[in-house]
Design a protein that fits this description.
The structure holds 2 protein chains of 2 kinds.
Chain A (H helix, E strand, L loop, with lengths): L2 H9 L3 H23 L2 H18 L9 H33 L21 H12 L3 H12 L4 H8 L3 H29 L1
Chain B lengths: L15 H63 L11
The chains are: A mainly alpha, B mainly alpha.
């Protein structure tokens, strides 16, 4: 179905169009969200929320951007909200630990992306840990480009910014990642 | 850094559409329930306020009648025109 027909169908709340939307975009959005939240169950939950929001707010879609760009934006905003909420919880847990009984801190589980080849699993896990340390915009640009294989032009459309800004974001992201990874590997070798 | 090169796209659950539809239906049902509850609550509030206003005016009227009787009694006492102790001789 052509995009314009799909949008019209969605605006008329046709179930068939909605099913097509979900089937066309579920993997793209799930992969993006998974790259950001780094947990499969949370990613699936957020992806469902993305489609619910798309269904409810399709009337406000004016067609200024491509449907995929609009969906990626919803997915990113939902994923970032989730991460912020999680970080707030972590911070408040740190404060409560001063007053409450001492509890053992839960270490975040190492994330293994299901699409990464087996030989690269450990390196990729380390890379994902380093990606987590990046500032929000750099993390989004890097995830969309590297994991979702979007071009710089497409990333710029999703982030509603210029091509040169994306180039700069990617350059800074790579520099920061190199530094973070060098630190991790240095710590690992000193621990051994 | 190159460990993500050639990584496959992660695939969502094949039942994602059913799950989304299920959540949408639950959401609609709960929002309908909430709307009904809001209407019921609003009706109860209006009824409660109306009854209070009615009770206020009813008792106010009653009080003003009592006040009138009270002032007549006090006037009668002041001028000793009490029906019980008035001397007709």
């Amino acid at each position: 179905m052509e995009e314009i027909l799909l949008i019209q169908g969605l605006q008329q709340k046709e179930e068939r169009s909605f099913e097509e939307l979900v089937n066309n975009y579920k993997n793209k959005l799930y992969n993006t969200v998974l790259g950001l939240v780094q947990n499969e169950m949370d990613a699936e939950d957020i992806t469902q929320e993305v489609f619910i929001q798309a269904y409810e707010s399709i009337q406000s879609f004016k067609g200024d951007s491509k449907l995929s760009t609009w969906l990626y934006r919803i997915a990113i905003s939902k994923a970032l909200d989730f991460i912020r909420k999680k970080n707030r919880k972590k911070r408040s847990a740190v404060i409560f630990r001063f007053f409450g009984p001492e509890r053992k801190e839960e270490e975040p589980a190492t994330f293994h992306h299901p699409g990464v080849v087996l030989e690269q699993r450990e390196n990729a896990a380390m890379l994902f840990k380093a990606i987590n340390e990046l500032p929000e915009k750099q993390r989004i640009a890097f995830t969309l480009h590297k994991l979702e294989a979007l071009s710089y032009q497409q990333v710029a459309a999703v982030l509603d910014t210029s091509l040169s800004s994306v180039e700069s974001l990617m350059h800074r992201a790579k520099t920061n990642l190199r530094e973070n990874l060098a630190e991790y590997y240095a710590n690992m070798t000193s621990e051994k | 850094m190159q460990s993500l090169d050639g990584a496959q796209r992660a695939e969502a659950s094949p039942y994602l559409y059913s799950k989304v539809m299920n959540r949408l239906q639950n959401k609609t049902a709960s929002s309908r329930k909430f709307l009904r509850l809001s209407w019921e609550l609003a009706f109860a509030m209006i009824l409660f306020t109306g009854l209070n206003i009615a009770a206020f005016f009813y008792f106010k009227q009653d009080d003003s009648q009592n006040d009138d009787n009270g002032s007549i009694t006090s006037l009668a006492n002041e001028y000793t025109i009490n029906s019980n102790n008035y001397n007709y001789n």
